[in-house]
TrEMBL record:
Listed PANTHER family: PROTEIN TRIGALACTOSYLDIACYLGLYCEROL 3, CHLOROPLASTIC
Superkingdom of the source species: Bacteria
Domain ABC transporter: 32-269
Pfam families attached to this UniProt entry: ABC_tran
Cross-referenced Gene3D superfamilies: P-loop containing nucleotide triphosphate hydrolases
Name of this chain's protein: ABC transporter ATP-binding protein
Organism encoding this protein: Puia dinghuensis
Keyword annotations: ATP-binding, Nucleotide-binding, Transport
MF terms (GO), sorted A to Z: ATP binding; ATP hydrolysis activity
Matching InterPro entries: AAA+_ATPase (IPR003593), ABC_transporter-like_ATP-bd (IPR003439), P-loop_NTPase (IPR027417)
Length: 283
């Protein structure tokens, strides 16, 4: 990885010198490539020369303690924040080279699930899911739109809630509806910002399993920002850990859990429940 600071290798636990990030050797271009991403607010540098990639069909989990730059990083990917320097390429498009229309066209191919699901309170579940179709699929027939709405609600197990208002739903149901609405435009890339925040353990596990189910069904590539280790254990194909604005470690859940670095292990020293979660999903 291209990093200015020394990092800890999760497989050797030795400080290693900065190196150029090695992309997949199979010749397949990653769907997301970030190089040298830096972002400051005033004199406070939140991200320092972050470089990473996401392979097609991969779930990359980004961990980090509060203030490590996780949320700022994901906002830079969708241009809710603008980096000070560095490059971001998504689906082969360099974000800095895109004009306004091209940026909007790319955003349709990227799903972003906010922490609070961002549903419209005055709209029913059906109307919430129909809204992005009305905005971006104007030529789609009403019959096909209705079929797509029902398919997405079936994916999240909430077809019976189609005429409910969000205020009548539980927190877990709101998250599911938010995911259904995000997936209705059939994005190639999903960005999840703390998808299990505020949920009880059982519901958080169900949402995590749903993320994996949608990944496999629609061949989605995802970045999942989380501090929930059960979510990480269920969803992650690969994990990176941010510390003080840099990529401090990278590896599989098992590699990082067995690291000799005490700070890395501190993320995993909480419960044996994660082993059950991993075994259940084959991660």
């Amino acid at each position: 990885m291209d990093q200015t600071n020394n990092t800890i290798s999760p497989t050797t636990d030795r400080a290693v010198q900065p190196q150029v990030e090695k992309l997949p050797a199979n010749g397949q271009q990653p769907v997301i490539v970030v190089r040298g991403l830096t972002k400051s607010f005033g004199e406070h540098e939140v991200l320092h020369s972050i470089s990473l990639h996401v392979k097609k069909g991969e779930n990359l989990v980004v961990l980090g303690k509060s203030g490590s730059g996780k949320s700022v990083f994901i906002k830079c990917l969708v241009r809710l924040e603008w980096p000070d320097c560095g490059t971001i390429s998504i689906l082969g498009k360099d974000l800095d080279s895109l004009n306004y229309q091209e940026t909007n066209d790319l955003r349709i191919r990227i799903g972003f699930l906010f922490q609070n699901a961002a549903l419209y309170d005055s709209m029913t579940v059906r109307e919430n899911l129909a809204f992005p179709l009305r905005q971006h699929k104007k030529r789609m027939s009403a019959k096909k739109k209705e079929a797509l709405i029902l398919e997405m609600l079936d994916n999240v197990g909430l077809v019976d809630s189609i005429d409910q208002l969000p205020s009548k739903l539980s927190g877990g149901q709101v998250k599911r509806i938010g995911l259904a609405r995000t997936l209705i435009l059939q994005p190639e890339v999903m960005l999840y910002d703390e998808p299990t925040t505020g949920l009880d353990t059982i519901t958080a596990k169900e949402i995590s399993e749903l993320i994996v189910k949608m990944q496999k069904k629609y061949h989605i590539s995802s970045i999942i920002i989380t501090h929930d280790m059960i979510c990480a254990g269920i969803t992650a194909d690969r994990i990176i850990i941010l510390r003080d604005g840099i990529v401090y470690a990278e590896g599989s859940y098992a590699q990082l859990e067995n690291s000799q670095d005490e700070w890395i292990r501190s993320f995993f020293d909480f419960s044996d429940n994660i082993n059950t979660a991993q075994n259940a999903t084959g991660k």
